[in-house]
């Protein structure tokens, strides 16, 4: 990207958070129960909680990833599952710095510390997704949303618009999704239980499972966020319950998917519009072959900033 295209990334986190009227996070005690934390997430319509003994002793973030850990390991308190290696960034650092951190540490969130007021904020990959979509809104208008069963599934793949360029003059957002996918996704049948899915997701390091029929036909997706929503509705679910719930009853059916020939601009527009963090990518024969996430898009862009 040339300097004029990346100038918006040079503002500090202080400026970014103030522009968005972001409120500081309330610090949640590590002794809080998982059930109480789920209730708080539901009431406040949040997906993350900042956990610590005090403003000066932050443990980390409780998210859907920590929820999966809590359920599989039979943990009851936030302090039992929140990692102590959570990364923080300073108020005076720039958006460009954070973009590099997301890529280097492969994390979906950081907490931001304002040392003057000793207040904390949470910055997520979704914040950056919306930032990019907003900054390049006019350019992305040249692309249609990709919807399930859309007859225009493969149109506009080579459309030339004014999007960020690398040092060779190639439009970065026109890179094919085939270059961005995380291959060998976890594939399960709809008859698999939620518990079995969580175990396999944890063991394989996946944040989602693609639900298929006949090993090749995409029928749904089940993500850590889907599990969070399930537990917020039914916080009393235990191992036995989860072993009896089939994926097909709680998965996201007919998810939006792309081919390896679709490009980053199309994925970015869909993700920002519909609010998801990853999409299924299929080959030319519509067989699911991988996942493209917001994190992989940010990682690719960070190489040129």
Report on this structure:
With 305 residues, the protein is α/β, with parallel strands linked by helices. It is 34% helix and 20% strand. The strands form 4 sheets. Strands 7-14-13-12 form a 4-stranded mixed β-sheet. The radius of gyration is 20 Å and the shape is flat. About 6% of the residues have low confidence.
Number of strands: 14
CATH topology of the largest domain: CBS-domain
Structural class: alpha/beta
Can you give the mean pLDDT?
A: 86
Quick summary:
The protein has 305 residues and is α/β, with parallel strands linked by helices. The protein has helices at residues 3-6, 13-19, 34-44, 64-72, 95-105, 125-135, 137-140, 194-204, 224-233, 239-244, 264-274, 294-302; strands at 27-28, 49-54, 57-62, 88-90, 109-114, 119-124, 182-183, 187-188, 208-213, 217-223, 252-253, 257-259, 278-282, 288-293.
Task: Annotate the secondary structure layout.
Elements: H1 3-6, H2 13-19, E1 27-28, H3 34-44, E2 49-54, E3 57-62, H4 64-72, E4 88-90, H5 95-105, E5 109-114, E6 119-124, H6 125-135, H7 137-140, E7 182-183, E8 187-188, H8 194-204, E9 208-213, E10 217-223, H9 224-233, H10 239-244, E11 252-253, E12 257-259, H11 264-274, E13 278-282, E14 288-293, H12 294-302
Parallel strand pairs: 1-2, 4-5, 8-9, 12-13
Antiparallel strand pairs: 2-3, 5-6, 7-14, 9-10, 10-11, 13-14
Summary tags:
four-stranded mixed β-sheet, CBS-domain, 305 residues, 12 helices, alpha/beta, single chain
């Amino acid at each position: 990207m040339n300097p004029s295209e990346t100038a918006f990334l040079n503002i500090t986190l202080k400026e970014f958070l103030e522009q968005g009227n972001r409120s500081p996070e309330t610090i949640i005690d590590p002794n809080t129960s998982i059930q109480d934390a789920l209730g708080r997430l539901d009431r406040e319509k949040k997906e993350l909680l900042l956990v610590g003994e005090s403003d000066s002793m932050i443990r980390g973030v409780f998210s859907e990833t920590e929820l999966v850990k809590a359920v599989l390991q039979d943990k009851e308190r936030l302090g039992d599952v929140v990692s102590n290696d959570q990364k923080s960034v300073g108020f005076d650092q720039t958006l460009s710095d954070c973009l590099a951190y997301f890529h280097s540490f492969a994390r979906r969130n950081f907490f931001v510390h304002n040392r003057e007021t000793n207040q904390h904020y949470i910055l997520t990959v979704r914040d950056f997704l919306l930032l990019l979509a907003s900054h390049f809104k006019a350019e992305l208008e040249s692309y249609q949303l990709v919807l399930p069963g859309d007859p225009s599934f493969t149109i506009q793949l080579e459309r030339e618009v004014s999007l960020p360029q690398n040092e060779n003059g190639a439009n970065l957002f026109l890179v094919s999704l085939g270059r961005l996918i995380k291959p060998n996704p976890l594939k399960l049948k709809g008859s698999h239980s939620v518990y079995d899915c969580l175990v396999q997701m944890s063991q394989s390091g996946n944040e989602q499972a693609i639900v298929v029929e006949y090993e090749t036909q995409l029928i749904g997706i089940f993500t850590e966020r889907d599990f969070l929503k399930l537990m917020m509705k039914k916080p009393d679910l235990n191992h036995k319950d989860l072993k009896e719930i089939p994926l097909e009853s709680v998965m996201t059916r007919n998810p939006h998917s792309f081919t390896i020939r679709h490009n980053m601009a199309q994925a970015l527009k869909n993700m920002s519009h519909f609010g998801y963090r990853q999409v299924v990518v299929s080959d030319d024969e519509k067989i699911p072959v991988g996942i493209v996430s917001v994190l992989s898009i940010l990682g690719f862009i960070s190489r040129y900033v």
